[in-house]
Design brief:
The chain is 8% helix and 36% strand. By secondary structure, the chain is mainly β. Strands 5, 6, 7, 8, 10, 12, 13 and 15 form an 8-stranded mixed sheet that branches. The protein has a 5-stranded mixed sheet with strand order 9-17-16-11-14, with no helix packed on it. A 5-stranded mixed sheet has the order 19-18-20-24-22, with no helix packed on it. A hairpin with a 2-residue loop joins strand 12 and strand 13. The two termini are 22 Å apart. 34% of the residues are buried. The structure holds copper (II) ion.
């Protein structure tokens, strides 16, 4: 990564990859205390632009507004409240703020409790992020008008989708157009929330408090004609094909107990420690089957990449909990259009196997995946994953395909015996054949569109 910084006012980050217009967010990820640090405010977002997006003439400038939705609870002195423990804890529970989930009683948007926004009679583009610890929002407009959704976590969708309701899980983003053109001046439109917490089996929200998110107050359009558009085609998304999958991995969402008897969530019944079990090869297409035999929806977030959702298939959870075998009870459910985009967080429904198609890359290395309910992530629904090298080909080496590293002092020479090289690796005589990309802005390295063929891997060989 190239970092150019002029302290303290300007930070320009040049990312070594093809920029996909999207809104991403970042937050503290300290192991075991992420829920506390994000809740305390260590989070932010950034927007990536592209020429493709600029050419669409979407509402922009002051008519494009990020909305970060979170929930907090406050003490009398205005400081943030976070529980020390579950309600009525058994005496064995230590007081270290471990709970199965925390939802605040006050909804804040961009740091303000239940704010309003003056809007003109025209179209607006809202970049919405759910930055809450546990709370999902099922959003609706009190004017009963549609959201026109144009984007997901990873950028623009292929076509806009009109929706009366949008459900957004922690960490998810939606990119929506709301058209106030035909709303009478003086109308106050409330963005409401009907999602239960925990989602979607807990208590329904109070219509006077956590059932409210914010308000739009419609004013006359005084700043000229609205010339923005919402084109019928926004971007091109090439769907991954199931037949191209190199490896299928099962990821079960499990709940158990820790040594104090407290609820502990896990992935594949493992804690975060205990080594890497997911080791995708860089560039290969994988299918991850997220198996949810429980009660709640878990927003499963995978680092490094944007993936596609293949489908959701209902299965027999009772049989699964007894035998560990998946027995499907129905056909894959057709994917609604708003789920046919790019995602880094997926809502894994209970009673369903959610199948994802994922191409890891373009970098090798250690990443994580986890539930984005932060209380689950911290205890202990997070696992490491390691994107490992793919053998690349050294020009002139006839047996190159069998070799996995090249000499540090002479990149044209392959290591003939990988076992022998293991002894030498620490003196830097050899290095792995990976991570070599000449020009990341070249469209042929657009990782999301890359087909999984030998020919294309050859293109990546350093010359
Ligand atoms: Cu979870």
């Amino acid at each position: 990564m190239v970092l150019e910084a002029t302290y303290p006012t300007l930070l320009v980050v040049i990312l070594p990859m093809k920029p996909w217009a999207s809104m991403l967010w970042y937050h503290d990820h300290a192991l075991g205390i992420t829920r506390l640090n994000v809740y305390a405010g260590l989070a932010g977002l950034y927007i990536i632009r592209s020429n493709e997006e600029r050419s669409l003439n979407l509402p922009s400038g002051v008519y494009e507004i990020p909305l970060v939705i979170q929930d907090k609870s406050f003490n009398e002195d205005g400081s943030l409240f976070y529980p020390r423990n579950v309600d009525n804890p058994p005496p064995t529970y230590p007081e270290v703020s471990i709970t199965p989930g925390f939802a605040g009683d006050t909804i804040i948007v961009n740091g303000k409790a239940w704010p309003y926004l003056d809007v003109e009679q025209r179209k607006y583009r809202f970049r919405i992020l759910n930055g809450s610890n546990e709370r999902f929002y099922r959003m609706r407009l009190s004017s009963d008008q549609d959201f026109i959704q144009i984007g997901t976590d990873g950028g623009l969708m292929e076509r806009p989708v009109r929706l009366k309701e949008i459900t957004i899980a922690p960490s998810q983003r939606v990119d929506v157009i709301i058209d106030f053109t035909d709303q009478p001046v003086g109308t106050n439109i409330i963005l409401t929330n009907s999602a239960r917490t925990p989602f979607d089996f807990g208590a329904p929200p109070d219509p006077n408090t956590d059932g409210l998110i914010m308000q739009f107050r419609v004013k006359e359009n005084t700043s000229g004609e609205d010339t923005s558009t919402v084109p019928e085609v926004l971007s091109r998304i090439k769907r991954y094909k199931e037949k191209d999958v190199c490896k299928v991995r099962d990821i079960s969402l499990d709940v158990g107990a820790d040594r104090f008897g407290r609820l502990m969530f896990m992935l594949n019944n493992r804690e975060f420690i205990g080594g890497v079990t997911e080791d995708p090869v860089v560039g290969e297409l994988e299918c991850w089957r997220i198996i949810n035999p429980g009660l709640g929806v878990h927003p499963i977030h995978i680092h490094q990449i944007q993936f596609q959702i293949l489908d959701r298939i209902p299965f027999d959870t009772a049989a699964y909990n007894q035998t560990g075998q998946i027995r499907y009870t129905g056909d894959p459910e057709p994917l609604p259009p708003e789920l046919r985009g790019w995602f880094d967080t997926v809502q894994a429904f209970p009673g369903y196997v959610t199948r994802l198609l994922i191409r890891f890359g373009p970098y090798t290395g250690r990443y994580v995946f986890h539930c984005h309910i932060l209380e689950h992530e911290d205890h202990d629904m997070m696992r490491p994953l390691e994107v490992v090298r793919k053998n690349l080909f050294t020009p002139g080496c006839k047996d190159c395909r069998k070799h996995d590293r090249i000499r540090y002092d002479d990149p044209k020479v392959c290591v003939k015996d990988p076992d022998e090289a293991d002894d030498e690796i620490y003196d830097k005589k050899y290095y792995w054949k990976d991570h070599v990309f000449e020009d990341d802005n070249d469209p042929k390295y657009d990782w999301r569109y890359m087909e999984d063929t030998d020919q294309e891997y050859k293109d990546l060989v350093p010359v």
